[in-house]
Amino acid sequence: MVSASTEPWSLPRVVVAAPASGHGKTTIATGLLAALRRRGLTVSPHKVGPDYIDPGYHALAAGRAGRNLDPFLVSAERIAGLLRHGASVPTPADVAVVEGVMGLHDGAVGRRDFASTAHVARLIDAPVLLVLDTTAQGRSAAALTLGMAAFDPAVRIGGVILNRVGSSRHETLLRDALAEVGVPVLGAVTRAAEVAAPARHLGLVPVAERAPESLAIVAALAELVEATVDLDAVLTLARSTGPLTAPAWDPVAAVGGPADAGRPRIALAGGPAFTFSYAETTELLTAAGADVVTVDPLRDPALPTGTRAVVIGGGFPEAYAEALAGNAALRAELADFDGPIVAECAGLLYLGRSLDGVPMCGRLDLTARMTGRLTLGYREAVAVTDSPVAVAGEPVRGHEFHRTTTDPGHGDRPAWRWDDTAHGFVAGRVHASYLHTHWAGHPEAARRLVEACR
């Protein structure tokens, strides 16, 4: 157990990575979390990159919030501190499991390996457990592993888990080849044993949308890992790390202490339609002095009593458009709400007049529709208009992830500008856009929102 947030902490930790997307990182990482928890260990789950969905499965497996480690969104300097913070609350963890993103060395476009899994592994000084899809592959798996390790000698590949193994003979061939290059095999999963979760767009369907099925999937993944992975060897690898010397990230210090706003109540949208929210958002708002409560736009007929501001994050509202429309009372209240409203992506669509012809709140004069095109990627934005969370001219980093478009594409008073184009809407006390941001990267947004509640 760590004795203080600033003293070195010998936190066992391991990064689950792969040569590319689709090799089975989420299967193995989620199964590891659940299997280690079954052993009675307190496990801290983390995800490289901006993704909201994998951390939901991680949280279900670990029994505590899944957290993101994204150098692009929050800066490289905060990564070790955020890992330490996440592994410390609500109680210190025995081990941290970090799932990577895309391929091990794939970073932000045009920035080499910045924000890659390899970059994060270096920042937190953690060994890598490489998951390999061995379909139609034999000794070449060893060459691939050797190349992944040699590409960046500062990243230590401590072991391999073979995935989608075809037979016992296939497994023997793979193990012999990897022994030749000195990389231990810590597990082997056959194609027949693989467990899959349903996908939407990219990644998995959010946990909140299919809770009973998600529980069953996590249980199956735990059993899969217990049967196919050497958990003792994984723990030995995780314990081979040095101590974390960076102090834990502190939300109170990040916002400069509580704002002088009389502890306003801020409602955060949740439920199956709005599952995209970073754990640090609530922590920062609370640190800034807010009383954060949850509202489910699918079921709650009104905002919680005393609500002074509303935050509506991302999700898949297109899957729940009819149900959202059916909650006419809450839509009407949001249309007339006179406090600050901050909306990202799904929240933007919900505040518009309609989504695929289905009525929404009508707070913003826009219509939205699904398209066949995925808009995805990091963005370096500049605030165009003063709002409850940003000051004009302020730079902010975020990411987009959507298959919808709005008409118009931005308001007369845009929220952001990037790539020489205006984006989003600032209308009265509403700030809405497609841009997802991680407030640990610009914590002043939380303090500004609390102060705007006065």
From TrEMBL:
GO terms for molecular function: ATP binding; cobyrinic acid a,c-diamide synthase activity; hydrogenobyrinic acid a,c-diamide synthase (glutamine-hydrolysing) activity. The keyword Lipoprotein does not apply. It comes from the Bacteria. Gene3D superfamilies: P-loop containing nucleotide triphosphate hydrolases. It is an enzyme of class 6 (ligase). The active site is at C345. Its EC number is 6.3.5.9. InterPro entries: CbiA/CobB_synth, Class_I_gatase-like, CobQ/CobB/MinD/ParA_Nub-bd_dom, GATase_3, P-loop_NTPase. It catalyses: hydrogenobyrinate + 2 L-glutamine + 2 ATP + 2 H2O = hydrogenobyrinate a,c-diamide + 2 L-glutamate + 2 ADP + 2 phosphate + 2 H(+). Its cofactor is Mg(2+). GO terms for biological process: cobalamin biosynthetic process. Residues 265-442 form the CobB/CobQ-like glutamine amidotransferase domain. Keywords: ATP-binding, Cobalamin biosynthesis, Glutamine amidotransferase, Ligase, Magnesium, Nucleotide-binding. Pfam families: CbiA, GATase_3. Pathway: Cofactor biosynthesis; adenosylcobalamin biosynthesis; cob(II)yrinate a,c-diamide from precorrin-2 (aerobic route): step 9/10. Residues 14-202 form the CobQ/CobB/MinD/ParA nucleotide binding domain. The record marks H436 as: Increases nucleophilicity of active site Cys. The a and c carboxylates of hydrogenobyrinate are activated for nucleophilic attack via formation of a phosphorylated intermediate by ATP. CobB catalyzes first the amidation of the c-carboxylate, and then that of the a-carboxylate. Belongs to the CobB/CbiA family. Catalyzes the ATP-dependent amidation of the two carboxylate groups at positions a and c of hydrogenobyrinate, using either L-glutamine or ammonia as the nitrogen source. Comprises of two domains. The C-terminal domain contains the binding site for glutamine and catalyzes the hydrolysis of this substrate to glutamate and ammonia. The N-terminal domain is anticipated to bind ATP and hydrogenobyrinate and catalyzes the ultimate synthesis of the diamide product. The ammonia produced via the glutaminase domain is probably translocated to the adjacent domain via a molecular tunnel, where it reacts with an activated intermediate. This is Hydrogenobyrinate a,c-diamide synthase. The gene is cobB.
